[in-house]
Amino acid sequence: MEKLLIDVSEHNGKIDWETVKNYIDGAIIRCGYGMDETNQDDKQWKRNVAECERLGIPFGVYLYSYATSKEKAKSEAQHVLRLINGHTLSYPVYFDMEEPGTENVSVENAKIFGDIIEKAGYWCGIYCSKDWYKTVVKGQLKRFTLWIAEYGSNNGQMQDNYKPNLGEDIWQYSSVGKMQGISETVDLNVCYRNFPLEINRMKEQWIKDEKGWWYRHGDGTYTKNNWEYINKKWYYFDKNGYMVTGWKKVEEYWYYMDISGAMQTGWIYVGENWFYLNGSGQMYENTWYKEEEQWYYLKAGGYMARNELLKIGNEKFAFLDSGRMVRTNARGALV
């Protein structure tokens, strides 16, 4: 079902949202432009978002990017997060990539921006013209939802023969639309996707970005510096919320997560050495372990003793290549 959306900024003046709500299905509001500086907040942002919330108009946001470096792209993402904090979005956050002179960096900057926005629990999309998408983006940002501008004769009417057909979810078909309640011309868009339904029923899911895997909860939050039990397996997430693989010391114990991130138990073979992890995943070290009437010894660092004669306490013990202790006297010590 197609939906009519408008996108607005301070350039549209003071909008009579009471009137506008009768003609639209939603709005994409500019929250600001450029890096995270308060003087670059959109001057109508606070009023526009407050009115949409008061009147129950579904909305998303966009930020016009001037970023020419990774650090500036990060700042732009923080700019958005500062302004949308405390608000509930029904449409994505869009990275508006159309500033001349940023062509060579805009794709990488969009990825950086998107990583931060998605990590905060929001949907992220990109906005650009059809020409920019074909000559600059070139299909490199398929992970993001697309909002594409292509106007045709740009007379305020939608002309189907100008539809971009780039896989866009929103098509901005006019920049000179007229609407009661808005004194200036306004951008008009047709949306082909039910974002409010999808976003509001967001499911818990694994998400992979350029830094690794993380697990988003239904409310957009994620676990940091802690364990989480997911689909009958334990995972550990670092201080930034990314899934840990390999060895990890948590408090006083070592644990091992395989390539999938799942915590391991029992015997594991890592780097040509055997280790034993108990049912809680804790690595044994400097201790004996008995299995099927056979004794094994886990040395400092967790390494299983094998092919060696080892002094433990005041006695010596021999171990086969399998790690099994060779029995001599009743205690296994050499006599």
From TrEMBL:
- A GO molecular-function descriptor: lysozyme activity
List, in alphabetical order, the GO biological process terms annotated in this UniProt record. carbohydrate catabolic process; cell wall macromolecule catabolic process; peptidoglycan catabolic process
Arranged from A to Z, the UniProt key words for this protein are:
Hydrolase, Repeat
Which stretches are Cell wall-binding repeats?
224-243, 244-263, 264-283
- Taxonomy of the source species: Bacteria, Bacillati, Bacillota, Clostridia, Lachnospirales
List the SUPFAM superfamilies hit by this protein, alphabetically: (Trans)glycosidases, Cell wall binding repeat
What family does the entry list? Belongs to the glycosyl hydrolase 25 family.
PANTHER family recorded: LYSOZYME (PTHR34135)
Superkingdom field: Bacteria
Q: What is this protein called?
A: Glycosyl hydrolase family 25
Repeat: present as a keyword of the record?
Answer: yes
